[in-house]
Amino acid sequence: MATPTDTQEQSSDGPLQRWTQSAIQNPDKVYRALFYAAMVFFLVTTLFPFYWLIVLAVTPEGNLLSGSFLPTVNLFGVSGTFPLPVPKGFNPGAFVTVFEQVPFHLYMLNSFALAVTTTVIVLFVASLAGYVFGRLRFPGRALLMLGILAISYFPPAAFVIPLFQAFAGNAPITIPFTSIPLFTPPRMLNTPGSMVLPFSALFMPLSIFILTTFYGQIPDGLEDAARVEGTTRLGALFRVIMPLSAPGVATAAVLTFIAVYNEYFFSSIMATSPEAAKWSPIVGGILSYQTQYTTQFNLMAAASIVGVLPVVILVIVAQERIVSGLTSGALKE
Amino acid sequence: MARVRLEHVTKRYDDQGDVVTAVDDMNLDIDHGEFICFVGPSGCGKSTTMETIAGLTIPTEGEIYIGDREVTNLPPKDRGIAMVFQNIALFPHMDVYDNISFGLRLRDYPQDEIDRRVERAADIVQLEGMLNRMPEEMSGGQRQRVAIARAIVREPDVFLMDEPLANLDAKLKVHMRTELQRLHKELDTTIIYVTHDQEEAMTLSDRIAVLDSGQLQQIDPPLTCYNEPDNLFVAGFIGSPSMNFIEGTVTDTALETPNFSLEFNPTSVEGVSAGDDVTLGIRPEDIYPGELKSEVPDPSGLITATTDILEPMGDEIFAYLLLGDGETSMSQELATNDQLLMSIDPDSDLEEDEEIGVVIDRRNVHLFDSATGEAIVHDLIPYEADSTTSGSEVESDD
């Protein structure tokens, strides 16, 4: 089978051979083609779930489970299945019902408050740590840094049981492997503290790592200048080093914010039931549309879209900041 | 009054087990309003010394006083100093106005006072109309002027300048040098200035502090450092091109070097006796072609030499002379016994590889102890001279 095509191409200089020839002479063409192929792949895999959510959200509840989302189209006598799912009916009211059935805005507020608090704590502490690791030389620096990074290698689930015990505040904390009591912690379940504390600890190492890299690159002269001009070391950090590391700070902030905003595992355990008053986050809210007997997929989809909007806005805003920070390249001293 | 005093200031670094002494027992007393230059080669400790005064480095030992206060362990912001950095170090995220007013805003000055001072500082360094620019939009010279404005706006007791002109091109450097002098006249503040460029130090300062390997070699007015260097290091460092050094031995009537002898009476010179090993130092401009012998106050005997390389500078010609058999010595030592550098008149018709006779002005011959490098005398009075006037160690003849 290969022989006839080969001879055919050789004799007539077939299209494949011509294309190969031009690709060899002009490799940019291949790179561009590969770029578009990869681009389309990533766009489809990231955007299709959103499209699917929208389709689900606007489909009236009664139509969800009957029939197919892939409509049959009849074009000029040729009938076939349309390859893209389309909504079965149009019910934008789902986006309102979402707030009527469950106080979803309160869940969003919970997630938002937890994310902002955690981000502020992480940025502050990680800035101090980043300053120390990035700008000071002391024995054991590498080892300490490695230790901090090692925390992030642990699966978070490993911390859940001891943390739950501690935050429950029922029994005193004991020295490991003994029964000698140290102190009885306050009860923190169902409060933001029981979530912000573990989140801060878990997301800190990544931020420390990012900020260490950025703070380490700020020239010493600028810090010296700030200190001579009248700041303390801490003042120089927050007035000069941090603003000049804006891209790094923004990256650390966005990553922390999104991670906490989307977090469910810890908060579903630290909030003993998925109620807004118990600081249950967005995912807890979305899951409340599922009851023992019904699952309102359209509302869950609508709530997911609403819940994702703040993050989308944040990323768009922060991305501009990151890009502007990277392109200005003002760090020549 | 901002007098700056350093007492036994020592700074040692621990470099992976090795102790490096960057500043070794430094004692300095700088008067109010004085312009002092720290000068020395790289790694001589001049920047570290300045950093200890600024408070960016805490000395291992010793005390630092600014005015009447001991400031050894105070943070930089509480010392009443302002500093101009070698890398200029403007804050890239602030415009010129914010850069200049940074220190004032930190100290909560009222807005109209800040405006007034920024205006005046910008006026002094000629930056009017540029207050809204960002540092990246400015040229090197303009940035340097912003840095200076940032320093003067705070009206500090002491200015510290760490090689502020090092990154500027040659022409701008000379221009900024005069501006700095004008500034010093206008402000009447103590200025401590670090440079590795001896020419900058000579032209700017009231006194030069010459540093080497963390130790103070000499602190004196520029011309004293030039005419009466305390030791071989200062003699070689101050002056461009640097002094010729030739090793020799003192006999009863002369100084014998491998290639020539210089007649003088050792008994008339304090600190020298026959048999001593000394190093002779003579500046290029104190060597004359033989035909000018009659114009030299205390000429030596004629020394034969061969011209090697001529470097015309426009206003003078530097002639490298080979003594003795004319073989070039490639030795890297300070004393290159068979080479002499002479500065001659630009109209001279001297050519390369020509045999000539030169004379040395014995009034400007420096003698150094070969073993310690310490200066012994700065002029050799000819032995015919009246012995009562001889032996003076510090006869300045500039």
TrEMBL record, chain A:
Keywords: Cell membrane, Membrane, Transmembrane, Transmembrane helix, Transport. The chain crosses the membrane at residues 33-57, 104-131, 143-164, 195-215, 236-261, 297-318. It is a multi-pass membrane protein. One of its GO terms (cellular component) is plasma membrane. Belongs to the binding-protein-dependent transport system permease family. This is Sugar ABC transporter permease. The keyword Protein transport does not apply. The keyword Transmembrane applies. Pfam families: BPD_transp_1. One of its GO terms (biological process) is transmembrane transport. It is found in: Cell membrane. Residues 108-318 form the ABC transmembrane type-1 domain.
From TrEMBL, chain B:
CDD domains: ABC_MalK_N. One of its GO terms (cellular component) is ATP-binding cassette (ABC) transporter complex, substrate-binding subunit-containing. Keywords: ATP-binding, Nucleotide-binding, Transport. This is ABC-type D-xylose/L-arabinose transporter. Part of the ABC transporter complex XacGHIJK involved in the uptake of xylose and arabinose. Responsible for energy coupling to the transport system. It is found in: Cell membrane. Pfam families: ABC_tran, OB_MalK. The keyword ATP-binding applies. Its EC number is 7.5.2.13. Residues 4-238 form the ABC transporter domain. GO terms for biological process: carbohydrate transport. Coiled coil: none annotated. GO terms for molecular function: ABC-type transporter activity; ATP binding; ATP hydrolysis activity. It catalyses: D-xylose(out) + ATP + H2O = D-xylose(in) + ADP + phosphate + H(+); L-arabinose(out) + ATP + H2O = L-arabinose(in) + ADP + phosphate + H(+). It is a peripheral membrane protein. The complex is composed of two ATP-binding proteins (XacJ and XacK), two transmembrane proteins (XacH and XacI) and a solute-binding protein (XacG). It comes from Haloarcula japonica (strain ATCC 49778 / DSM 6131 / JCM 7785 / NBRC 101032 / NCIMB 13157 / TR-1). Belongs to the ABC transporter superfamily. Carbohydrate uptake transporter-1 (CUT1) (TC 3.A.1.1) family.
